[in-house]
Design a protein that fits this description.
Helices cover 28% and strands 19% of the residues. With 444 residues, it is of the alpha/beta class. Among the domains are: 158 residues, NADH-ubiquinone oxidoreductase 51kDa subunit (Rossmann fold, 3-Layer(aba) Sandwich); 68 residues, no CATH class. The protein has a six-stranded mixed β-sheet with strand order 1-14-13-17-15-16. The N and C termini lie far apart (47 Å).
Protein backbone atom coordinates (compact mmCIF):
# COMPACT_ATOMS: atom_id res chain seq x y z
CA UNK A 1 0.00 0.00 0.00
CA UNK A 2 1.29 3.47 -0.90
CA UNK A 3 2.27 5.75 1.97
CA UNK A 4 1.68 9.48 2.28
CA UNK A 5 1.86 12.34 4.75
CA UNK A 6 -0.92 12.71 7.29
CA UNK A 7 -2.44 16.11 6.52
CA UNK A 8 -3.24 18.31 3.56
CA UNK A 9 -1.96 18.12 0.02
CA UNK A 10 -3.52 18.48 -3.42
CA UNK A 11 -3.63 16.47 -6.65
CA UNK A 12 -2.60 18.57 -9.66
CA UNK A 13 -2.35 16.88 -13.05
CA UNK A 14 1.23 15.58 -13.14
CA UNK A 15 1.74 16.16 -16.91
CA UNK A 16 5.01 14.17 -17.07
CA UNK A 17 5.21 14.61 -20.83
CA UNK A 18 9.01 14.23 -20.86
CA UNK A 19 9.07 10.89 -18.98
CA UNK A 20 10.27 8.96 -22.01
CA UNK A 21 12.90 11.49 -23.07
CA UNK A 22 16.28 9.93 -22.36
CA UNK A 23 18.99 12.20 -20.96
CA UNK A 24 20.98 13.91 -23.71
CA UNK A 25 24.29 15.74 -23.27
CA UNK A 26 23.81 19.43 -24.04
CA UNK A 27 26.56 21.08 -26.12
CA UNK A 28 29.16 23.18 -24.31
CA UNK A 29 28.33 26.89 -24.13
CA UNK A 30 30.46 29.35 -26.06
CA UNK A 31 30.98 31.28 -22.84
CA UNK A 32 30.21 30.07 -19.31
CA UNK A 33 29.02 32.39 -16.53
CA UNK A 34 29.67 30.62 -13.24
CA UNK A 35 27.95 32.19 -10.24
CA UNK A 36 29.62 32.35 -6.84
CA UNK A 37 26.16 32.10 -5.19
CA UNK A 38 25.00 28.60 -6.13
CA UNK A 39 24.22 27.43 -2.61
CA UNK A 40 22.38 28.42 0.53
CA UNK A 41 24.56 30.73 2.63
CA UNK A 42 27.43 33.06 1.84
CA UNK A 43 28.64 33.29 -1.79
CA UNK A 44 32.00 31.76 -2.59
CA UNK A 45 35.07 33.94 -3.06
CA UNK A 46 36.63 33.95 -6.56
CA UNK A 47 39.94 32.07 -6.60
CA UNK A 48 41.06 32.93 -10.16
CA UNK A 49 41.86 36.12 -12.04
CA UNK A 50 41.23 37.49 -15.51
CA UNK A 51 43.54 35.82 -18.02
CA UNK A 52 43.97 32.60 -16.03
CA UNK A 53 43.67 29.31 -17.88
CA UNK A 54 41.31 26.84 -16.20
CA UNK A 55 40.38 23.21 -16.74
CA UNK A 56 37.04 21.47 -16.34
CA UNK A 57 36.62 20.56 -12.68
CA UNK A 58 39.17 23.08 -11.41
CA UNK A 59 38.42 24.94 -8.17
CA UNK A 60 37.61 28.57 -8.99
CA UNK A 61 35.63 29.69 -5.90
CA UNK A 62 36.24 28.98 -2.21
CA UNK A 63 33.81 29.13 0.74
CA UNK A 64 33.55 32.51 2.46
CA UNK A 65 31.96 31.24 5.67
CA UNK A 66 30.64 28.17 7.48
CA UNK A 67 27.50 28.03 5.33
CA UNK A 68 29.13 28.16 1.92
CA UNK A 69 30.47 25.81 -0.74
CA UNK A 70 33.28 25.36 -3.24
CA UNK A 71 32.62 26.27 -6.87
CA UNK A 72 34.42 24.59 -9.77
CA UNK A 73 34.80 25.41 -13.42
CA UNK A 74 32.39 23.44 -15.59
CA UNK A 75 34.44 24.14 -18.72
CA UNK A 76 38.02 24.67 -19.82
CA UNK A 77 39.27 27.91 -21.27
CA UNK A 78 40.37 31.42 -20.31
CA UNK A 79 38.88 33.58 -17.57
CA UNK A 80 37.45 36.58 -19.43
CA UNK A 81 36.01 38.45 -16.45
CA UNK A 82 35.36 38.29 -12.71
CA UNK A 83 32.32 40.51 -12.33
CA UNK A 84 28.65 40.65 -11.33
CA UNK A 85 26.30 38.91 -13.78
CA UNK A 86 22.49 39.10 -13.73
CA UNK A 87 20.74 35.97 -12.43
CA UNK A 88 17.29 34.69 -13.46
CA UNK A 89 15.59 37.43 -11.42
CA UNK A 90 17.86 40.14 -12.83
CA UNK A 91 19.90 40.52 -9.62
CA UNK A 92 23.64 40.99 -10.09
CA UNK A 93 25.72 38.15 -8.60
CA UNK A 94 29.52 37.91 -8.56
CA UNK A 95 30.49 35.44 -11.27
CA UNK A 96 33.47 34.08 -13.17
CA UNK A 97 33.12 34.37 -16.94
CA UNK A 98 35.07 31.82 -18.97
CA UNK A 99 35.63 31.74 -22.72
CA UNK A 100 35.33 28.05 -23.59
CA UNK A 101 38.31 26.49 -25.37
CA UNK A 102 37.89 22.75 -25.86
CA UNK A 103 37.10 20.51 -22.88
CA UNK A 104 40.26 19.67 -20.94
CA UNK A 105 39.47 18.04 -17.57
CA UNK A 106 41.46 17.93 -14.35
CA UNK A 107 43.48 14.69 -14.52
CA UNK A 108 42.35 13.36 -11.12
CA UNK A 109 38.70 13.08 -12.23
CA UNK A 110 37.67 9.55 -13.25
CA UNK A 111 35.63 9.98 -16.44
CA UNK A 112 35.19 6.29 -17.24
CA UNK A 113 31.65 4.84 -17.22
CA UNK A 114 32.70 1.99 -14.90
CA UNK A 115 30.71 1.82 -11.66
CA UNK A 116 33.00 1.90 -8.60
CA UNK A 117 31.32 -0.16 -5.88
CA UNK A 118 34.01 -0.44 -3.21
CA UNK A 119 33.80 2.49 -0.78
CA UNK A 120 37.28 2.97 0.65
CA UNK A 121 36.87 6.28 2.51
CA UNK A 122 35.70 6.46 6.12
CA UNK A 123 32.92 8.79 7.32
CA UNK A 124 34.99 11.96 7.97
CA UNK A 125 36.90 11.50 4.69
CA UNK A 126 33.61 11.09 2.80
CA UNK A 127 32.30 14.37 4.18
CA UNK A 128 35.61 16.08 3.38
CA UNK A 129 35.49 14.82 -0.23
CA UNK A 130 31.88 15.98 -0.63
CA UNK A 131 32.88 19.41 0.68
CA UNK A 132 35.91 19.59 -1.62
CA UNK A 133 33.69 18.77 -4.62
CA UNK A 134 31.15 21.49 -3.83
CA UNK A 135 28.13 19.19 -3.64
CA UNK A 136 24.89 20.90 -2.64
CA UNK A 137 21.28 19.73 -2.39
CA UNK A 138 19.71 19.45 -5.83
CA UNK A 139 16.11 19.35 -4.68
CA UNK A 140 15.87 23.14 -4.80
CA UNK A 141 17.27 24.57 -1.56
CA UNK A 142 20.97 24.10 -2.50
CA UNK A 143 21.94 23.37 1.12
CA UNK A 144 25.66 22.44 1.26
CA UNK A 145 25.62 18.65 1.53
CA UNK A 146 28.66 18.31 3.77
CA UNK A 147 26.90 20.41 6.42
CA UNK A 148 23.67 18.41 6.18
CA UNK A 149 25.66 15.21 6.70
CA UNK A 150 27.22 16.66 9.88
CA UNK A 151 24.38 16.92 12.45
CA UNK A 152 24.92 19.60 15.11
CA UNK A 153 25.93 18.60 18.65
CA UNK A 154 23.10 16.87 20.47
CA UNK A 155 21.42 15.74 17.23
CA UNK A 156 21.79 12.18 15.89
CA UNK A 157 20.55 10.64 12.67
CA UNK A 158 19.16 7.12 12.60
CA UNK A 159 18.11 6.95 8.95
CA UNK A 160 18.67 8.47 5.52
CA UNK A 161 15.78 9.19 3.14
CA UNK A 162 16.41 9.67 -0.58
CA UNK A 163 13.75 11.87 -2.17
CA UNK A 164 12.71 10.40 -5.50
CA UNK A 165 9.12 11.65 -5.27
CA UNK A 166 9.46 14.42 -7.88
CA UNK A 167 5.90 15.51 -7.07
CA UNK A 168 5.88 18.77 -9.05
CA UNK A 169 3.97 18.59 -12.35
CA UNK A 170 6.06 18.36 -15.54
CA UNK A 171 9.43 17.62 -13.89
CA UNK A 172 11.18 14.40 -14.95
CA UNK A 173 14.94 14.88 -14.43
CA UNK A 174 14.98 12.78 -11.23
CA UNK A 175 12.84 10.14 -12.92
CA UNK A 176 15.31 9.85 -15.78
CA UNK A 177 18.38 9.46 -13.54
CA UNK A 178 16.49 6.79 -11.52
CA UNK A 179 15.84 5.00 -14.81
CA UNK A 180 19.30 5.45 -16.31
CA UNK A 181 21.69 5.53 -13.32
CA UNK A 182 19.95 3.66 -10.49
CA UNK A 183 22.94 1.87 -9.00
CA UNK A 184 25.00 5.06 -8.76
CA UNK A 185 22.11 6.65 -6.83
CA UNK A 186 21.98 3.66 -4.48
CA UNK A 187 25.75 3.83 -4.01
CA UNK A 188 25.42 7.54 -3.24
CA UNK A 189 22.90 6.61 -0.56
CA UNK A 190 25.22 3.95 0.88
CA UNK A 191 28.06 6.48 0.97
CA UNK A 192 25.91 9.00 2.86
CA UNK A 193 24.69 6.29 5.26
CA UNK A 194 28.33 5.52 6.02
CA UNK A 195 29.05 9.21 6.61
CA UNK A 196 26.06 9.46 8.96
CA UNK A 197 26.83 6.11 10.63
CA UNK A 198 23.30 4.82 10.05
CA UNK A 199 22.18 1.40 8.83
CA UNK A 200 18.73 2.27 7.46
CA UNK A 201 18.12 4.00 4.16
CA UNK A 202 14.85 4.64 2.34
CA UNK A 203 14.20 5.73 -1.24
CA UNK A 204 10.75 7.33 -1.56
CA UNK A 205 9.13 7.27 -5.02
CA UNK A 206 5.55 8.22 -5.97
CA UNK A 207 3.34 5.46 -7.37
CA UNK A 208 2.92 7.26 -10.71
CA UNK A 209 6.50 6.14 -11.53
CA UNK A 210 6.24 2.31 -11.57
CA UNK A 211 9.20 1.89 -13.92
CA UNK A 212 11.43 3.97 -11.61
CA UNK A 213 10.24 1.97 -8.60
CA UNK A 214 11.22 -1.26 -10.33
CA UNK A 215 14.54 0.20 -11.52
CA UNK A 216 15.52 1.38 -8.04
CA UNK A 217 14.35 -1.83 -6.36
CA UNK A 218 16.49 -3.88 -8.69
CA UNK A 219 19.49 -1.64 -7.99
CA UNK A 220 18.94 -1.66 -4.22
CA UNK A 221 18.47 -5.41 -3.97
CA UNK A 222 22.20 -6.00 -3.55
CA UNK A 223 22.65 -3.41 -0.81
CA UNK A 224 21.42 -4.34 2.69
CA UNK A 225 19.54 -1.77 4.72
CA UNK A 226 18.05 0.14 1.75
CA UNK A 227 14.32 -0.04 1.10
CA UNK A 228 12.32 1.52 -1.74
CA UNK A 229 9.15 3.03 -0.27
CA UNK A 230 6.17 3.52 -2.59
CA UNK A 231 4.41 6.83 -1.98
CA UNK A 232 0.95 7.93 -3.00
CA UNK A 233 0.91 10.55 -5.77
CA UNK A 234 0.10 13.70 -3.86
CA UNK A 235 1.65 17.15 -3.84
CA UNK A 236 3.86 18.17 -1.96
CA UNK A 237 4.96 14.59 -1.27
CA UNK A 238 8.57 15.58 -1.95
CA UNK A 239 8.59 18.31 0.70
CA UNK A 240 11.20 17.39 3.30
CA UNK A 241 8.80 17.43 6.25
CA UNK A 242 6.05 15.64 4.33
CA UNK A 243 8.45 12.97 3.07
CA UNK A 244 9.73 12.24 6.58
CA UNK A 245 6.15 11.90 7.82
CA UNK A 246 5.17 9.63 4.92
CA UNK A 247 8.17 7.31 5.23
CA UNK A 248 8.69 7.15 9.01
CA UNK A 249 5.44 8.43 10.52
CA UNK A 250 7.42 11.05 12.46
CA UNK A 251 6.61 14.77 12.41
CA UNK A 252 9.06 17.67 12.37
CA UNK A 253 8.06 19.98 15.26
CA UNK A 254 7.12 23.61 14.68
CA UNK A 255 10.29 25.69 14.29
CA UNK A 256 12.19 22.40 14.30
CA UNK A 257 14.59 20.78 11.85
CA UNK A 258 14.30 17.44 10.05
CA UNK A 259 17.23 16.12 12.11
CA UNK A 260 14.98 16.51 15.18
CA UNK A 261 13.18 13.40 13.91
CA UNK A 262 16.42 11.49 13.39
CA UNK A 263 16.07 11.62 9.60
CA UNK A 264 18.34 13.19 7.00
CA UNK A 265 16.76 13.79 3.57
CA UNK A 266 18.71 14.08 0.33
CA UNK A 267 17.46 14.33 -3.25
CA UNK A 268 18.04 11.51 -5.76
CA UNK A 269 20.18 13.81 -7.92
CA UNK A 270 22.21 14.76 -4.84
CA UNK A 271 22.86 11.06 -4.18
CA UNK A 272 24.20 10.73 -7.73
CA UNK A 273 26.40 13.81 -7.23
CA UNK A 274 27.73 12.32 -3.97
CA UNK A 275 28.60 9.07 -5.75
CA UNK A 276 30.45 10.99 -8.47
CA UNK A 277 32.30 13.11 -5.90
CA UNK A 278 33.40 10.27 -3.60
CA UNK A 279 33.96 7.48 -6.12
CA UNK A 280 34.97 9.48 -9.18
CA UNK A 281 36.45 12.65 -7.61
CA UNK A 282 34.14 14.67 -9.86
CA UNK A 283 32.98 18.09 -8.59
CA UNK A 284 29.38 19.17 -9.07
CA UNK A 285 29.67 20.88 -12.45
CA UNK A 286 26.58 19.65 -14.29
CA UNK A 287 22.97 18.63 -13.68
CA UNK A 288 20.04 17.16 -15.59
CA UNK A 289 17.51 19.81 -16.61
CA UNK A 290 14.02 19.06 -17.92
CA UNK A 291 12.97 21.48 -20.69
CA UNK A 292 9.27 20.99 -21.22
CA UNK A 293 5.86 22.53 -21.78
CA UNK A 294 2.77 21.75 -23.81
CA UNK A 295 3.64 24.56 -26.21
CA UNK A 296 6.95 22.90 -27.15
CA UNK A 297 7.05 20.57 -30.18
CA UNK A 298 9.18 18.19 -28.09
CA UNK A 299 10.54 18.04 -24.55
CA UNK A 300 14.08 17.18 -23.46
CA UNK A 301 16.05 16.06 -20.44
CA UNK A 302 19.44 17.68 -20.97
CA UNK A 303 22.67 17.10 -19.01
CA UNK A 304 23.86 20.70 -18.84
CA UNK A 305 27.13 22.20 -17.63
CA UNK A 306 26.74 24.79 -14.86
CA UNK A 307 27.02 28.34 -16.21
CA UNK A 308 25.32 27.66 -19.53
CA UNK A 309 23.01 30.59 -20.39
CA UNK A 310 19.28 29.81 -20.33
CA UNK A 311 19.03 31.42 -23.75
CA UNK A 312 21.21 28.71 -25.30
CA UNK A 313 19.17 25.92 -23.71
CA UNK A 314 15.86 27.50 -24.70
CA UNK A 315 17.12 27.99 -28.22
CA UNK A 316 17.73 24.27 -28.74
CA UNK A 317 16.68 22.84 -31.04
CA UNK A 318 13.77 24.93 -32.33
CA UNK A 319 13.86 28.14 -30.28
CA UNK A 320 11.19 29.54 -27.98
CA UNK A 321 7.66 29.00 -29.33
CA UNK A 322 5.76 32.18 -30.17
CA UNK A 323 2.91 31.23 -27.84
CA UNK A 324 5.19 30.78 -24.80
CA UNK A 325 4.16 33.58 -22.47
CA UNK A 326 6.12 32.61 -19.35
CA UNK A 327 9.27 30.66 -18.55
CA UNK A 328 9.63 29.10 -15.11
CA UNK A 329 12.79 27.74 -13.53
CA UNK A 330 11.40 24.69 -11.74
CA UNK A 331 7.84 23.45 -11.61
CA UNK A 332 4.52 25.32 -11.81
CA UNK A 333 3.84 25.09 -8.07
CA UNK A 334 7.12 26.33 -6.53
CA UNK A 335 9.25 27.39 -9.48
CA UNK A 336 10.42 30.95 -10.11
CA UNK A 337 9.62 33.03 -13.18
CA UNK A 338 12.63 33.71 -15.37
CA UNK A 339 12.93 37.45 -15.82
CA UNK A 340 16.30 37.24 -17.57
CA UNK A 341 16.69 34.48 -20.19
CA UNK A 342 20.39 35.29 -20.53
CA UNK A 343 20.95 34.19 -16.93
CA UNK A 344 23.29 31.22 -16.43
CA UNK A 345 22.27 27.90 -14.95
CA UNK A 346 23.39 27.05 -11.42
CA UNK A 347 23.95 23.71 -9.71
CA UNK A 348 20.38 23.15 -8.50
CA UNK A 349 18.51 24.07 -11.69
CA UNK A 350 16.33 21.08 -12.53
CA UNK A 351 13.80 22.35 -15.06
CA UNK A 352 12.75 25.04 -17.49
CA UNK A 353 9.00 25.07 -18.02
CA UNK A 354 7.36 27.06 -20.82
CA UNK A 355 3.71 28.03 -20.35
CA UNK A 356 1.20 29.71 -22.62
CA UNK A 357 -0.76 32.82 -21.69
CA UNK A 358 -3.84 30.71 -21.05
CA UNK A 359 -1.93 28.48 -18.64
CA UNK A 360 -0.55 31.43 -16.68
CA UNK A 361 -3.76 33.45 -16.45
CA UNK A 362 -5.08 33.68 -12.89
CA UNK A 363 -8.78 33.68 -12.23
CA UNK A 364 -10.24 36.95 -11.03
CA UNK A 365 -10.19 36.97 -7.24
CA UNK A 366 -13.31 37.53 -5.17
CA UNK A 367 -14.15 37.57 -1.47
CA UNK A 368 -13.35 34.58 0.74
CA UNK A 369 -16.41 32.32 0.95
CA UNK A 370 -15.13 30.60 4.11
CA UNK A 371 -15.23 27.15 2.56
CA UNK A 372 -12.15 25.94 4.45
CA UNK A 373 -10.58 24.26 1.41
CA UNK A 374 -7.28 26.03 2.01
CA UNK A 375 -7.20 24.65 5.57
CA UNK A 376 -7.86 21.12 4.33
CA UNK A 377 -5.12 21.48 1.70
CA UNK A 378 -2.37 22.93 3.91
CA UNK A 379 0.22 20.18 4.59
CA UNK A 380 1.50 22.12 7.61
CA UNK A 381 -1.84 22.32 9.41
CA UNK A 382 -2.06 26.12 9.10
CA UNK A 383 -5.09 28.29 8.42
CA UNK A 384 -4.21 30.15 5.21
CA UNK A 385 -7.45 32.17 5.08
CA UNK A 386 -6.67 33.54 8.56
CA UNK A 387 -3.00 34.21 7.79
CA UNK A 388 -4.10 36.09 4.68
CA UNK A 389 -6.53 38.19 6.72
CA UNK A 390 -3.92 38.97 9.39
CA UNK A 391 -1.39 39.82 6.69
CA UNK A 392 -3.76 42.33 5.13
CA UNK A 393 -4.27 43.94 8.54
CA UNK A 394 -0.54 44.02 9.28
CA UNK A 395 -0.95 42.06 12.52
CA UNK A 396 2.55 40.62 12.80
CA UNK A 397 2.23 39.47 16.42
CA UNK A 398 -0.85 37.43 15.60
CA UNK A 399 0.78 36.02 12.49
CA UNK A 400 3.63 34.80 14.67
CA UNK A 401 1.16 33.33 17.16
CA UNK A 402 -0.45 31.38 14.31
CA UNK A 403 2.92 29.96 13.16
CA UNK A 404 3.19 31.71 9.79
CA UNK A 405 6.90 30.82 9.81
CA UNK A 406 5.96 27.14 9.36
CA UNK A 407 4.57 27.84 5.88
CA UNK A 408 6.61 25.88 3.31
CA UNK A 409 5.30 28.04 0.43
CA UNK A 410 4.03 25.01 -1.50
CA UNK A 411 1.04 26.86 -2.97
CA UNK A 412 -1.57 24.23 -2.04
CA UNK A 413 -3.80 26.91 -0.50
CA UNK A 414 -3.84 29.07 -3.61
CA UNK A 415 -4.25 26.04 -5.89
CA UNK A 416 -7.41 24.97 -4.10
CA UNK A 417 -9.01 28.38 -3.41
CA UNK A 418 -12.32 28.68 -5.35
CA UNK A 419 -12.28 32.45 -4.85
CA UNK A 420 -8.94 32.83 -6.65
CA UNK A 421 -7.37 34.71 -3.73
CA UNK A 422 -3.56 34.94 -4.07
CA UNK A 423 -3.09 33.48 -0.59
CA UNK A 424 0.51 32.39 -1.06
CA UNK A 425 1.63 35.80 -2.31
CA UNK A 426 0.31 37.52 0.81
CA UNK A 427 1.42 34.82 3.25
CA UNK A 428 4.94 34.65 1.80
CA UNK A 429 5.37 38.40 2.23
CA UNK A 430 4.03 38.27 5.80
CA UNK A 431 6.22 35.29 6.66
CA UNK A 432 9.34 37.13 5.53
CA UNK A 433 8.46 40.14 7.68
CA UNK A 434 7.70 38.01 10.76
CA UNK A 435 10.97 36.11 10.43
CA UNK A 436 12.83 39.42 10.07
CA UNK A 437 11.23 40.67 13.29
CA UNK A 438 12.03 37.44 15.12
CA UNK A 439 15.68 37.55 14.07
CA UNK A 440 16.04 41.18 15.14
CA UNK A 441 15.18 40.36 18.75
CA UNK A 442 18.03 40.13 21.26
CA UNK A 443 19.07 36.53 21.85
CA UNK A 444 18.22 35.27 25.31
Amino acid sequence: MSKTFRMGGVHPNDRKISNDCAIEVFPLPRRAYISMAQHLGAPATPAVNVGDKVKTGQLIGTPSGFMSANVHSSVSGTVAAVEPVADLAGNKVMSIVIDVEGDEWMPEIDRTPDIVREITLDGPAIISRIKDCGVVGLGGASFPTHIKLSPPPGKTADCLIINGAECEPYLTSDYRIMMERPEEIVLGAVIMMKALNVTRGYIGIEDNKPAAIESMRNAASGYPGIEVVVLRKKYPQGGEKQLINAVTGRSVPSMGLPIDTGAVVQNAATALAVYEAVQKNKPLIDNTITVTGQCLPESHNWLVRVGTPYSEILGAPDGIPENAAKIISGGPMMGKAVANINAPTVKANGALLLLTEEQTRRMKSSNCIRCGKCVDACPMGLEPYLLNKLSGAGKMDELEEHNVYDCIECGCCMFTCPAGIPLLDHIRQAKGEVIRIMRSRPKK
